[in-house]
């Protein structure tokens, strides 16, 4: 269980804060979207109460889950999770409302959390898993420097059946080198 308070992560347009159970109303849009939930480990939610119960472990700090909000608007648009798996190794997960796609929000939010995990905290590795047919997630991961490290056959039993999983990894040195090459110093978000 995470005991330290989660840092607030800020960029010019986004604020990432700890998820709360009162985000259920906003995040029900995300978690009830049949298409979005195709690649999630559980099926689409059918009530706000189901979403509230789903968010409870993150809200009480059982895992780190940052709600993605726009600066000046506290409504949750999605989230980025970080689950400590081993010492200095985290698993990353994320989801974003379909209405926010194509605006670079997921990329920016994931980058903010990667900065927190790999630069600020000094984690050595972050990994994510994606269904082989989840092309949007695979594209996001590979565009950010994640490398496909494995293909686990029949790894997950989900609401759409037994699914394979692709494992993508990113090392601290790879992320810091990538950040050093960034021509825009404003692209590195702040922690506050």
Structure description:
28% of the residues lie in helices and 35% in strands. The chain has helices at residues 24-31, 48-59, 105-120, 135-143, 172-180; strands at 9-10, 14-18, 64-70, 73-86, 89-96, 125-130, 147-158, 161-171, 190-191. Strands 7-8-6-5-4-3-2-1-9 form a 9-stranded mixed β-sheet, sandwiched between helices. Helix 1 crosses helix 2. The radius of gyration is 16 Å and the shape is globular. It starts with 8 loop residues before the first strand and ends with a strand. The model is unreliable at 188-192 (pLDDT under 50). This is N-acetyltransferase. It comes from Blastomonas aquatica. Residues 14-167 form the N-acetyltransferase domain.
Summarize the structure.
With 192 residues, the chain is α+β, with helices and mostly antiparallel strands. It has 5 helices and 9 strands.
Features:
28% helix, 9-stranded mixed β-sheet, Aminopeptidase, 192 residues, alpha+beta
